[in-house]
Amino acid sequence: MKPPALANWRGYVRVRIRGQYAEQLLNKLSAKQMLIWDVAREEDNQVSFFMMLPDFFRLRPLLKETGCRVHVEARFGLPFSVKQVRKRTFFISGLFLFLLGMYMLSSLIWTIDVKGNERISTDDVLAAAREEGIYPFQWTFRMKKLDTLSKELNARLPSTSWIGVTRQGTKVVIHVVESTVAENRTLRNPSHLIARTDAVVTEIIAKAGRAVVRPNTRVKKGSVLISGIVGSAQAQQAVPAKGVVRGLVWHEYEISSPLISKQKVLTGEFTERHYVQLGERRLQVSGFGDIPYAQYEVTTDVAATSWGRVSLPFGWITEKIAEVQLVAEERSEQAAMQEGLKQARFDIVAKNGPDARVKTEKILHQKSENGKVKLKVLFEVEQSIAVEQPIIH
User: Which of the 8 DSSP states describes residue 221?
Assistant: First the structure.
């Protein structure tokens, strides 16, 4: 038999009756119009059944009359659920406070990003935003409308043509479009372009001034390449020379490259440290103590949290600390020589600009001693050779 209607709301129990007059007790229950169901005889002088909770509290006088005893085997319904909840008041309160805290923290502005600014400093933009009520730990519901903020920030920063304000959860992004400013050309004094080193000219393009040399001409350091004196002999004029002059320059390098190279190799051993991140701060929760490795590499993994589309200012950071060892690898003289030449080419580009090109390289001397390959190499490099020299009248 199913429980009667509203039994779960009023509550009901399953009881076991023990006594010689258990059947007489059942008759008295019926006479008192107490509702019972699923009556079952368990053993001699024992019966079990379900009954409503209010009727259970009326059972005591009948038990005394029949000399029976009762044992509650199970409880069902809302009254018992409420009682269980009351026992866990601290847990329920903590859950409520946690959800309330999550909601309150997600209603705060935690970070402000400024994008698109080049001439205007980020500090100036943030200062103007603070005046309009945009700053960390400000309540989002206290902010003005985003289009209103955009107009007022644009008025506070006259060197901007447009400012847009967007909010992404707990982060506010300020997009800045700066006003176009006419190029401020600096005045240059009349000058020549001269050779900064001995070279053979490969290319010369005079944009201002007069080219003095031609391609395939050998020039000395200090020779005039593009003259700033233009015009005829009767009507000369001094201008700032401008142009492109490239030439072949010779660089001599002494290279020492070891025959044994050392590389970092992961051993497979690692340990981890975990942190709870709150805004810009983080709190370590595991992996305390000194790092047990003499040499190691650290990789960081950040797991951000979100509530739907709202990014929360909480996160979980995992640092993986992996042990590494220096492994010595022996290489041939040819491999060591190529590595040395490679490093020399990098040095040439670093010293002479990214447009420098190595045309040829000639090994003048090579020997191996003390575990190293020593080279003397002559590099032929095509590079810019022009440097400015003021014209003094």
Answer: T
